Amino acid sequence: MGAATKKIAVVAAFPLYELKSFGPSFYPKGHFATWLPQLAATWEDQPHFEIHWIVGSDRVQQASSHRQWNQRFHVYPASRRGRATTLYRQDRRFIGEILTNIKPGLVHPWGTEDVCGFAGVLSQAPCILSMQGILSHIVQHGLHHPRVYFQAVLEGFCLRRAAWVTVESDWGRQKILPFRGKRPVEVIEYGVHPDFFKARWEPNIHKPRFLFLGTICAQKGVQDCLAAFRDPRMSQARLEIFGSGDPQYVQRLQAASPPNVAWRGRQPREVVIRAMEKATGLILPTRADTSPNVVKEARVVGLPVIVSPQGGQVAYVKNGEDGFVVPTKDINRLVSATAQLSQNPSLVLKMGELGRLRYREKFLPLKTAEAFLGLYRKAFANLSVNSPHP
To answer: How far is CA 342 from CA 326, 349, 389, in A?
Structure first.
């Protein structure tokens, strides 16, 4: 195969603040893909592929190109409103022009929550689609903005059209198999940022403090955390909530918060790590998560975790051994699990250390990078076998 066909275009919502050309002023308002920067950094020295990233941002005025980690980042201006109602016409035009210039052998979009997956499967190149949230499952749990339902429909189209699909967990794989038939679905774990491996977990065992980290929304179960900490059994424990969400929803929750709950808002990674270093445990009673990175980060640092069974996070918790798996919406069981950790410091330390080394090995960014490089090699080999010969 020619050198040109070894080009890969990764279409993703890459956190621009991680690029030297943009910096902290581009820190995002909402959720961002925390695993992508360490993936790019780990690919810096790989010699096999020419990797291009295509990133849209409503905070830039014109298209630009930047080089970092021996990769090229193509940034284009995305409109602020009405993008989905036009089927992302403007975004797809920019992405199409960039792809025409790059002429990649593979296109690798990340996620179906926005334009990335849709633009990727509509491109002329074979497509590897990597899932983030699984919208077709999420819409079955609670009410959502109409745009989410629209994206769930597009997600089904993308899953059926992509040549390859990757997902973070076997739980997620089972959710998307009905869309794929006999076509391949590969499980590739997304790694944890190296900074979490440097953390020193030294919880204050006499002042139990728990963390909730994530988007402040009903899907993540933050309302269950508040209900649990209103229980008298939790009066001596503290909950700190990190994250942002719809302002009106957040304000309603804050107004109903008990006094042992503190709201920290969105914080940079170093602040989150410092909070984890002193925390008793992490609580995430989510309704639907493919494989929440915050649980992986907690496992790497050493925190016991309390989670729901609705998501890939169950693969990282042995119930009663290194954490607890609590039935969704079961506030009494959530209180009971949290109280056990609050009242038993030796149990906290035992659970935190159990399996910690295994998780630190499992979530190394290098493993994610190597897994995708292996998939790229397999995809190009498949294309070579199936391409017409002169």
So the answer is: 16, 12, 67
pLDDT tens digits for range 233-253: 999 999 999 999 999 999 999
Among residues 241, 255, 244, the alpha carbon closest in space to that of 217 is found at 244
Convert the pLDDT of each residue in 319-332 to its tens digit. 999 999 999 999 99
Angstrom CA distances, 132 to 33, 93, 110, 172, stand at 9, 24, 7, 9
Residues 6+ apart with CB under 8 A from 364: 191, 192
Segment (H or E) for 227:
helix 222-229
The answer to whether residues 342 and 237 touch, using CB atoms and an 8 Å cutoff, is: yes
Q: What span, in angstroms and rounded, lies between the C-alpha atoms of 167 and 174?
A: 10
d(CA 14, CA 40): 10
pTM, two decimal places: 0.88
Cβ(306)–Cβ(323) below 8 Å: yes
- The domains found in the chain, sorted by start residue, are 3-191+364-386 (3.40.50.2000), 194-362 (3.40.50.2000)
Residue carrying structure tokens 């002023």: 25
- The encoded tokens of residue 271 equal 């602040």
